Amino acid sequence: MTPHDVxxxxxxxxxxxxxxxxxxxxYWRGTAMLxxxxxxxxxxxxxVGPWRGAAxxxxxxxxxxxxxxxxxxxxxxxxxAHMVQHLLLIVVAAPLLVxxxxxxxxxxxxxxxxxxxxxxxxxxxxxxxxxxxVTHPLTTWLMATVVLWVWHVPSLYQAALEHQTVHxxxxxxxxxxxxxxxxxxxQPTGPRRLPxxxxxVYVFTGALQSGALGALLVFxxxxxxxxxxxxxxxxxxxxxxxxxxxxxxxxxxxxVIYLVAAGAxxxxxLRVAEVEARRVEARAAKVLAKVPxx
Length: 294
Fold this sequence. Notes:
The chain is mainly alpha-helical. Helices cover 74% and strands 0% of the residues.
Protein backbone atom coordinates (compact mmCIF):
# COMPACT_ATOMS: atom_id res chain seq x y z
CA MET A 1 0.00 0.00 0.00
CA THR A 2 1.44 3.38 -1.04
CA PRO A 3 1.17 6.61 1.00
CA HIS A 4 -1.34 7.91 -1.55
CA ASP A 5 -3.56 4.87 -1.03
CA VAL A 6 -3.44 5.32 2.75
CA UNK A 7 -4.46 8.97 2.68
CA UNK A 8 -7.54 8.12 0.63
CA UNK A 9 -8.65 5.31 2.97
CA UNK A 10 -11.18 5.77 5.75
CA UNK A 11 -12.24 3.26 8.39
CA UNK A 12 -15.99 3.54 7.91
CA UNK A 13 -17.01 0.44 9.85
CA UNK A 14 -20.73 0.82 10.68
CA UNK A 15 -20.46 -0.18 14.38
CA UNK A 16 -17.68 2.36 14.98
CA UNK A 17 -19.33 5.25 13.13
CA UNK A 18 -22.72 4.43 14.67
CA UNK A 19 -21.20 4.29 18.15
CA UNK A 20 -19.64 7.74 17.81
CA UNK A 21 -22.87 9.14 16.37
CA UNK A 22 -24.99 7.62 19.15
CA UNK A 23 -22.67 9.01 21.82
CA UNK A 24 -22.96 12.47 20.29
CA UNK A 25 -26.75 12.25 20.00
CA UNK A 26 -27.15 10.98 23.57
CA TYR A 27 -24.96 13.79 24.89
CA TRP A 28 -26.89 16.37 22.86
CA ARG A 29 -30.20 15.05 24.18
CA GLY A 30 -28.92 15.02 27.77
CA THR A 31 -27.67 18.59 27.44
CA ALA A 32 -31.03 19.67 26.04
CA MET A 33 -32.74 18.09 29.06
CA LEU A 34 -30.40 19.83 31.50
CA UNK A 35 -30.78 23.19 29.78
CA UNK A 36 -34.54 22.92 29.28
CA UNK A 37 -36.27 26.15 30.39
CA UNK A 38 -38.36 25.98 33.55
CA UNK A 39 -41.65 27.82 33.20
CA UNK A 40 -41.18 31.34 31.90
CA UNK A 41 -37.43 31.44 32.70
CA UNK A 42 -35.06 31.36 29.83
CA UNK A 43 -32.72 28.46 29.17
CA UNK A 44 -29.74 28.31 31.55
CA UNK A 45 -27.17 25.54 31.99
CA UNK A 46 -27.81 23.28 34.97
CA UNK A 47 -24.87 21.13 36.05
CA VAL A 48 -23.01 21.37 32.73
CA GLY A 49 -21.83 24.61 31.20
CA PRO A 50 -21.28 25.20 27.46
CA TRP A 51 -17.52 24.67 27.77
CA ARG A 52 -18.11 21.11 28.98
CA GLY A 53 -20.24 20.40 25.93
CA ALA A 54 -17.51 21.81 23.72
CA ALA A 55 -14.92 19.60 25.46
CA UNK A 56 -17.02 16.48 24.86
CA UNK A 57 -17.58 17.40 21.22
CA UNK A 58 -13.85 17.92 20.73
CA UNK A 59 -13.23 14.56 22.38
CA UNK A 60 -15.54 12.84 19.89
CA UNK A 61 -13.80 14.62 17.01
CA UNK A 62 -10.44 13.37 18.29
CA UNK A 63 -11.84 9.82 18.46
CA UNK A 64 -13.03 10.25 14.88
CA UNK A 65 -9.56 11.39 13.81
CA UNK A 66 -7.89 8.49 15.62
CA UNK A 67 -10.19 5.66 14.60
CA UNK A 68 -12.02 6.66 11.41
CA UNK A 69 -9.69 8.99 9.51
CA UNK A 70 -6.85 7.73 7.26
CA UNK A 71 -4.64 7.71 10.37
CA UNK A 72 -6.15 4.30 11.19
CA UNK A 73 -4.92 2.80 7.89
CA UNK A 74 -1.64 4.66 8.20
CA UNK A 75 -1.10 2.97 11.57
CA UNK A 76 -0.87 -0.35 9.69
CA UNK A 77 2.17 0.97 7.84
CA UNK A 78 4.07 3.01 10.43
CA UNK A 79 4.67 2.38 14.12
CA UNK A 80 4.90 6.15 14.63
CA ALA A 81 1.40 6.60 13.16
CA HIS A 82 0.10 3.82 15.40
CA MET A 83 1.66 5.61 18.37
CA VAL A 84 -0.07 8.87 17.39
CA GLN A 85 -3.35 6.94 17.33
CA HIS A 86 -2.75 5.64 20.86
CA LEU A 87 -1.73 9.05 22.17
CA LEU A 88 -4.87 10.65 20.76
CA LEU A 89 -6.93 8.09 22.67
CA ILE A 90 -5.02 8.31 25.96
CA VAL A 91 -3.98 11.94 26.45
CA VAL A 92 -6.30 13.94 24.17
CA ALA A 93 -9.68 12.25 23.69
CA ALA A 94 -9.92 10.74 27.19
CA PRO A 95 -9.45 13.97 29.22
CA LEU A 96 -11.69 15.94 26.85
CA LEU A 97 -14.48 13.37 27.18
CA VAL A 98 -14.08 13.33 30.98
CA UNK A 99 -14.29 17.11 31.18
CA UNK A 100 -17.64 16.87 29.40
CA UNK A 101 -19.12 14.99 32.40
CA UNK A 102 -20.62 12.32 30.14
CA UNK A 103 -22.13 10.21 32.93
CA UNK A 104 -24.16 13.15 34.22
CA UNK A 105 -25.28 14.34 30.80
CA UNK A 106 -25.95 11.02 29.05
CA UNK A 107 -27.77 9.84 32.18
CA UNK A 108 -30.26 12.62 31.54
CA UNK A 109 -30.86 11.26 28.05
CA UNK A 110 -32.16 7.99 29.51
CA UNK A 111 -35.84 7.49 30.12
CA UNK A 112 -37.05 8.05 33.71
CA UNK A 113 -37.71 4.31 34.07
CA UNK A 114 -34.14 3.45 33.05
CA UNK A 115 -32.74 6.12 35.38
CA UNK A 116 -34.74 4.70 38.32
CA UNK A 117 -33.58 1.20 37.46
CA UNK A 118 -29.95 2.31 37.24
CA UNK A 119 -30.28 4.17 40.54
CA UNK A 120 -31.68 1.07 42.27
CA UNK A 121 -28.92 -1.10 40.80
CA UNK A 122 -26.29 1.39 41.92
CA UNK A 123 -27.45 1.10 45.53
CA UNK A 124 -26.77 -2.67 45.63
CA UNK A 125 -23.94 -3.33 48.09
CA UNK A 126 -21.94 -5.74 45.90
CA UNK A 127 -22.02 -3.33 42.96
CA UNK A 128 -21.12 -0.37 45.19
CA UNK A 129 -18.14 -2.30 46.52
CA UNK A 130 -16.95 -3.08 43.00
CA UNK A 131 -17.39 0.55 41.90
CA UNK A 132 -15.48 1.81 44.96
CA UNK A 133 -12.62 -0.56 44.19
CA VAL A 134 -12.48 0.19 40.46
CA THR A 135 -12.62 3.97 41.01
CA HIS A 136 -10.08 4.05 43.85
CA PRO A 137 -7.15 6.30 42.80
CA LEU A 138 -4.57 3.54 43.30
CA THR A 139 -6.66 1.15 41.20
CA THR A 140 -7.19 3.60 38.34
CA TRP A 141 -3.49 4.54 38.31
CA LEU A 142 -2.41 0.90 38.30
CA MET A 143 -4.91 -0.07 35.59
CA ALA A 144 -3.79 2.75 33.29
CA THR A 145 -0.13 1.91 33.87
CA VAL A 146 -0.50 -1.85 33.46
CA VAL A 147 -2.60 -1.49 30.30
CA LEU A 148 -0.06 0.94 28.79
CA TRP A 149 2.88 -1.40 29.37
CA VAL A 150 1.20 -4.75 28.74
CA TRP A 151 -0.24 -3.78 25.36
CA HIS A 152 3.23 -2.68 24.23
CA VAL A 153 4.70 -6.12 24.93
CA PRO A 154 5.81 -7.27 21.44
CA SER A 155 3.67 -10.44 21.37
CA LEU A 156 0.45 -8.62 22.32
CA TYR A 157 1.23 -5.62 20.13
CA GLN A 158 1.83 -7.98 17.19
CA ALA A 159 -1.43 -9.82 17.89
CA ALA A 160 -3.35 -6.54 17.89
CA LEU A 161 -1.91 -5.66 14.50
CA GLU A 162 -2.70 -9.04 12.99
CA HIS A 163 -6.20 -9.60 14.43
CA GLN A 164 -8.93 -6.98 14.23
CA THR A 165 -10.77 -8.23 17.33
CA VAL A 166 -7.62 -7.94 19.44
CA HIS A 167 -6.97 -4.50 17.97
CA UNK A 168 -10.44 -3.31 19.01
CA UNK A 169 -9.87 -4.72 22.50
CA UNK A 170 -6.54 -2.88 22.70
CA UNK A 171 -8.10 0.47 21.79
CA UNK A 172 -11.00 -0.08 24.19
CA UNK A 173 -8.55 -0.87 27.01
CA UNK A 174 -6.51 2.26 26.29
CA UNK A 175 -9.53 4.56 26.14
CA UNK A 176 -11.38 3.00 29.09
CA UNK A 177 -8.47 3.03 31.53
CA UNK A 178 -7.38 6.48 30.36
CA UNK A 179 -10.85 7.88 31.04
CA UNK A 180 -10.78 6.39 34.54
CA UNK A 181 -7.32 7.87 35.07
CA UNK A 182 -8.29 11.37 33.96
CA UNK A 183 -11.66 11.21 35.74
CA UNK A 184 -9.81 10.48 38.99
CA UNK A 185 -7.34 13.30 38.38
CA UNK A 186 -9.71 15.99 37.08
CA GLN A 187 -12.86 14.98 38.99
CA PRO A 188 -15.28 17.19 37.00
CA THR A 189 -18.27 16.26 39.19
CA GLY A 190 -19.01 14.43 42.43
CA PRO A 191 -16.94 14.04 45.60
CA ARG A 192 -13.17 14.19 45.20
CA ARG A 193 -11.25 10.94 45.45
CA LEU A 194 -7.86 12.65 45.58
CA PRO A 195 -6.94 15.50 47.95
CA UNK A 196 -5.52 18.67 46.49
CA UNK A 197 -1.83 18.18 45.81
CA UNK A 198 -2.12 14.42 45.58
CA UNK A 199 -3.75 14.86 42.16
CA UNK A 200 -0.59 16.65 41.00
CA VAL A 201 1.57 13.69 42.04
CA TYR A 202 -0.97 11.29 40.50
CA VAL A 203 -0.70 12.91 37.06
CA PHE A 204 3.07 13.48 37.24
CA THR A 205 3.77 9.83 38.00
CA GLY A 206 1.54 8.90 35.08
CA ALA A 207 3.76 11.07 32.89
CA LEU A 208 6.81 9.10 34.02
CA GLN A 209 5.30 5.90 32.63
CA SER A 210 4.84 7.25 29.12
CA GLY A 211 8.29 8.85 29.28
CA ALA A 212 9.94 5.58 30.27
CA LEU A 213 8.17 3.65 27.52
CA GLY A 214 9.09 6.29 24.95
CA ALA A 215 12.73 6.23 26.04
CA LEU A 216 12.76 2.44 25.71
CA LEU A 217 11.64 2.72 22.08
CA VAL A 218 14.07 5.55 21.29
CA PHE A 219 17.18 3.87 22.67
CA UNK A 220 16.47 0.31 21.51
CA UNK A 221 19.27 -0.88 19.25
CA UNK A 222 16.97 -2.81 16.91
CA UNK A 223 13.28 -2.85 15.90
CA UNK A 224 11.08 -4.37 18.59
CA UNK A 225 7.95 -5.07 16.53
CA UNK A 226 8.50 -7.42 13.53
CA UNK A 227 5.21 -6.35 11.95
CA UNK A 228 6.73 -3.04 10.76
CA UNK A 229 10.10 -4.38 9.57
CA UNK A 230 9.38 -4.01 5.83
CA UNK A 231 6.58 -1.44 5.87
CA UNK A 232 8.32 1.82 6.76
CA UNK A 233 10.54 1.75 3.65
CA UNK A 234 7.65 2.94 1.49
CA UNK A 235 7.56 6.09 3.61
CA UNK A 236 11.27 6.82 3.33
CA UNK A 237 12.13 5.47 6.81
CA UNK A 238 13.92 2.45 8.15
CA UNK A 239 12.09 0.35 10.74
CA UNK A 240 14.46 1.59 13.45
CA UNK A 241 13.93 5.26 12.48
CA UNK A 242 10.18 4.73 12.54
CA UNK A 243 10.45 3.18 16.00
CA UNK A 244 12.62 6.04 17.27
CA UNK A 245 10.09 8.56 15.98
CA UNK A 246 7.31 6.63 17.74
CA UNK A 247 9.33 6.71 20.97
CA UNK A 248 9.89 10.44 20.71
CA UNK A 249 6.16 10.98 20.21
CA UNK A 250 5.41 8.87 23.28
CA UNK A 251 8.13 10.63 25.27
CA UNK A 252 8.08 14.37 24.52
CA UNK A 253 4.56 15.56 23.47
CA UNK A 254 2.85 13.16 25.86
CA UNK A 255 5.08 14.20 28.75
CA VAL A 256 4.32 17.85 28.00
CA ILE A 257 0.55 17.20 28.07
CA TYR A 258 0.83 15.45 31.44
CA LEU A 259 2.99 18.28 32.82
CA VAL A 260 0.53 20.93 31.64
CA ALA A 261 -2.29 19.02 33.34
CA ALA A 262 -0.24 18.64 36.54
CA GLY A 263 0.63 22.34 36.43
CA ALA A 264 -3.03 23.31 36.05
CA UNK A 265 -3.95 21.10 39.01
CA UNK A 266 -1.13 22.69 41.05
CA UNK A 267 -2.40 26.20 40.29
CA UNK A 268 -5.93 25.16 41.24
CA UNK A 269 -4.58 23.72 44.49
CA LEU A 270 -2.90 27.04 45.32
CA ARG A 271 -6.07 28.98 44.55
CA VAL A 272 -8.21 26.73 46.73
CA ALA A 273 -5.65 26.98 49.54
CA GLU A 274 -5.69 30.78 49.24
CA VAL A 275 -9.49 30.94 49.39
CA GLU A 276 -9.53 28.64 52.42
CA ALA A 277 -6.87 30.75 54.16
CA ARG A 278 -8.97 33.88 53.62
CA ARG A 279 -12.01 32.13 55.08
CA VAL A 280 -10.02 31.13 58.16
CA GLU A 281 -8.76 34.69 58.56
CA ALA A 282 -12.29 36.07 58.18
CA ARG A 283 -13.65 33.67 60.82
CA ALA A 284 -10.79 34.54 63.18
CA ALA A 285 -11.45 38.26 62.68
CA LYS A 286 -15.13 37.77 63.55
CA VAL A 287 -14.23 35.90 66.71
CA LEU A 288 -11.76 38.58 67.76
CA ALA A 289 -14.33 41.31 67.07
CA LYS A 290 -16.72 39.68 69.58
CA VAL A 291 -14.12 39.55 72.32
CA PRO A 292 -14.70 42.53 74.68
CA UNK A 293 -11.66 44.74 75.27
CA UNK A 294 -10.03 44.53 78.67
